[in-house]
Amino acid sequence: MTAVAAPVKAARSRLADPESRPDADVVIYDGHCRICTGGVELLARFDWGGRLAFLSLHDPRVAERYPDLTHDQMMEEMYVVDRQGTKRAGAPAFRYLTRRLPVLWPVAPIMHIPLSMYLWGWIYRRIARARYRFGKLDDCADGSCKVHFK
Fold it and tell me: What is the pTM of this model?
C-alpha cells in the first residue's frame, strides 16, 4: 500500500457501512479521491445520530444496490440515496444533508435561497471537476479518473 493510499483506506474503514446501518441514508462518494474521502469523513463526524452510511462508488455493492446509476454519473457528482430510495446528486444532495445533520442546519437557509440551486450546482460541478488536481489520488490504476485531467 502506498503512503497516499494508507490514509484514504483508513478513513474508509472508519465510515459506517450500509450493512451496519440498514435504515440510514447512503452517501455514494469517490473513494479514490482524497478530497471526497475527507469530506465524507467529516460528514461522518457530524453524523451524531447515525443517519448516514457511506459507500465508495468503486465498491461493487453500489452496482448491485443502484443499477440505474452509471459509473460516469457517480464520477461527476456525489449521490445521496435516502431511506425511501430517492436519489439526489451534487448540490441538491448537499442541500438535503443540510436538513439531515443538525450541525449543518445553519447552512440550510443559504442552500435554500429561492433560485440559488443553479449557482450551488455550478460551484459544485467546478469543484468536482478539479478534485483530482487538488486532492491527489488514492488509486487510479484502472484509468477511470483520466476524465478529470482533460
Answer: 0.80
